[in-house]
Write a structure and sequence with these properties.
348 residues, 15 helices, 0% strand, ABC_BtuC-like
């Protein structure tokens, strides 16, 4: 991981060269795209509905089968948007904290750590409260993040981006095997957890959303308030400290926000990967590297990506559906390979 402040100064100055009106237009475009995708999510599925049925469902009517189908899709659409926003924002924060372009809640094993914690709590400790899933998932996500970072710092060169990615991939694979080992002997929980482990937003309800909303709100607030500190960290630890930033505290607070978002998202929708990898890189191309713009844009684009993945999964496999975890993996895996093959990418 690069720590020199002098080499990172040109990157830190990059946001100033991007006019604020241009970035504001991109943010407005992201809001409009998200609104269009959420509308499409209400309209498309196993049962075809008309736009009049969609607007009637939004208004609270469900007197026909088509309107009832659209009504059921409303909480699913909201859940996809909030989970996508959480994962996109968490990915941007993780990349800023580690200054690692390969950082992602899935690649670093954070989501799978949360998944293993939830499965273990249900199988061995009888956890049944959905609200309890969030606390357990956050604890698992935090332990996984600490473990991967510790392993990635071993050896010469410290925690380089590639070492962290390899440590995270190995940890995620090991945790996935442990999840399977825990679930297979338990026929009473195996069916539900197999579907949950893929990652999806089917069967969403507003009660389910309400259980994770306070945690997501806290995570969003912590991450967005860390934007200035992340800009300082991008200069390098020495220069950031010279500018008055408490480097360890800034990293810890920002990482806490990302862990809270990952834990809540995994508890609600399972371990969905690659959203936190694809979204921040796309956002940097559009609004630059200033985290004051990057973080809210990552949340909007993450919401749009996961909503689009849910719509695609319902359309291509109609009358069945592909879970969003499968769709995001199909999109994110080639993107990950492309990032790794870029020889000039070392750190953010």
């Amino acid at each position: 991981m690069t720590t020199s402040g002098t080499r990172r100064a040109p990157d830190a100055a990059a946001p100033a060269r991007r006019p604020a009106p241009g970035r504001a237009l991109w943010l407005l475009a992201a809001v409009l795209v998200l609104a269009a995708l959420m509308t499409a999510s209400l309209a498309f599925g196993s049962r075809a509905v008309t736009w009049s049925d969609v607007w009637a469902a939004v208004g609270g009517a469900d007197t026909t089968l088509e309107q009832a189908a659209a009504t059921k899709r409303i909480p699913r659409t909201v859940l996809a948007a909030v989970i996508g926003a959480a994962l996109g924002l968490a990915g941007a924060v993780m990349q800023g904290v580690t200054r690692n372009p390969l950082a992602d809640p899935g690649i670093l094993g954070v989501n799978m750590g949360a998944s293993l914690a939830v499965v273990t709590a249900v199988a061995f400790f009888g956890l049944t409260s959905p609200a309890g899933y969030v606390w357990v998932a956050m604890a698992g996500a935090a332990l996984a993040a600490v473990f991967v970072h510790t392993v990635g710092t071993l050896g010469r060169g410290g925690a380089t981006p590639l070492k962290l990615a390899l440590a995270g991939a190995a940890t995620a694979a090991a945790f996935a095997s442990l999840v399977t080992a825990v679930v297979l002997p338990r026929n009473d929980i195996a069916g539900g957890f197999r579907l949950w482990q893929i990652g999806g937003v089917g069967g969403a309800s507003f009660a389910r959303i309400a259980q994770i909303l306070p945690f997501l709100a806290a995570g969003f607030a912590i991450c967005l308030l860390s934007a200035r500190a992340l800009n300082s960290l991008a200069l390098g630890d020495e220069l950031a400290a010279g500018l008055g930033t408490r480097v360890a505290a800034a990293r810890g607070v920002a990482a806490l926000g990302a862990v809270v978002l990952c834990g809540a998202a995994t508890a609600a929708a399972g371990p969905i990967g690659f959203v936190g990898l694809v979204v921040p890189h796309t956002c940097r191309l559009l609004v630059g590297v200033d985290h004051r713009w990057l973080l809210p844009f990552a949340a909007l684009l993450g919401a749009a990506l996961l909503t689009a993945a849910d719509v695609i999964g319902r359309v291509v496999a109609r009358p069945a559906e592909l879970d969003v975890g499968i769709v995001t993996a199909l999109v994110g895996a080639p993107f990950f390979i492309w990032i790794v093959r870029r020889q000039k990418v070392r750190a953010l």
